[in-house]
Amino acid sequence: MRADPRVIQQLIDRKVRPLGAAPDVRERAQQMAITMITHGGRRLTAIRAAVSYAATTTDQETSK
Question: Would you give the DSSP letter of residue 64?
Answer without folding.
Answer: -
